[in-house]
Amino acid sequence: MKLQRKNGLRAAALGALVVSGALVLTACGSDDNASGGDGGGTKPSASSNIDCGDAKGQLRASGSSAQKNAMDLWVKNYMAACPGVQINYNSSSSGEGIVAFNQGTVGFAGSDSALKPEEVADSKKTCQSGQGINLPMVGGPIAIGFHLEGVDKLTLDAPTLAKIFDSKIKKWNDPAIAKLNEGVKLPDTAVQAFHRSEDSGTTQNLGKYLNAAAPDAWKYEPEKAWPAPGGQAASGSSGVAAQVKQVDGAIGYFELSYAKSQGITTVDIDTGGSAPVKATSENASKAIAAAQIKGQGKDLALGLDYATKADGAYPVVLVTYEVVCDKGNKPETLSAVKSFLGYTASEDGQKILTEAGYAPIPAEINTKVRETVKGLS
């Protein structure tokens, strides 16, 4: 696609605005190339297959901070190929994104959990002739990051994690932790557990894992709001990661890309399989690949097995959905929504995810996502 000189300059300027996101993603290579790489989709060829269609104008979106690093790169690539479209994604939280979507102030929302029935009902006011549907677009592990001076490797299981985040385990040399880490010298340091301060799909997915894998230790229903007493709160995945990075004795949860970009050591999960499982895109993909579509009609919400014991399957995973109207999208943004989400669901768009520390959506499910995007009206 030919770009005029002024549009090239504009794309370069816009690229500068997201350079921090691009640098984060460049640092988020696979485990065998953690020192960097080419940043995946930053290659000119990554945008050569983007179909801009008749998209134009401004497209606003908001929601999940879990997908921020992927969204930054997607937006950069798309706007370089389609300079007639300006996409503004506000990385806030899943809860805020759905509120904005149902208020009709954004073209789509990012959410780390599928719409609830009451949220679908609310969406009908905005979608008018249709309703909000869930399109799985980004998969990946929820890394459990920790900062413990003198300890660079740690294994935990679901019951122990539940007790840590429920403020039942208060010291790092607690017998339950020591039993899982024979030979590791654990200090008598206070546990500083950090959680999200705002409604978050990442919180809800962690809750689903703890609820499924440690039901006797985690009695809380999986909700977007943090349910347990105690602990310390921080805003966004970036805020939790920043606190874990700087506080000795800290532990928190966030997407793998945040752990990689900030050099945070992550916990290996003892699932009861043959060996503890590391938080990697590949291991998360093994868990997500077993997901089943549970949504009805055009809705593609997934059912995940958080209690999996399959060898090499990392169980603490999330899938971020792009929430859109199946019908009744605003005419002024419909073309941009279809064009942009068509790119993010494309082979090129999904390929970026692995290079960025995420996991692509399984091909069989992704094919249905592409078909659904084409049929949006």
From TrEMBL:
Family matches, as NCBIfam families: 3a0107s03
- Record family assignment: Belongs to the PstS family.
Matches recorded under PROSITE patterns: PROKAR_LIPOPROTEIN
- The record places domain PBP at 55-347
Q: Which organism is it from?
A: Streptomyces lichenis
Question: What name appears for this protein in its UniProt entry?
Answer: Phosphate-binding protein
Q: Which UniProt keywords apply?
A: Phosphate transport, Signal, Transport
Ranked from the top, the taxonomy reads:
Bacteria, Bacillati, Actinomycetota, Actinomycetes, Kitasatosporales
Question: Region (Disordered): which ranges?
Answer: 33-54
* SUPFAM superfamilies hit by this protein: Periplasmic binding protein-like II (SSF53850)
PANTHER family reported for this sequence: PHOSPHATE-BINDING PROTEIN PSTS
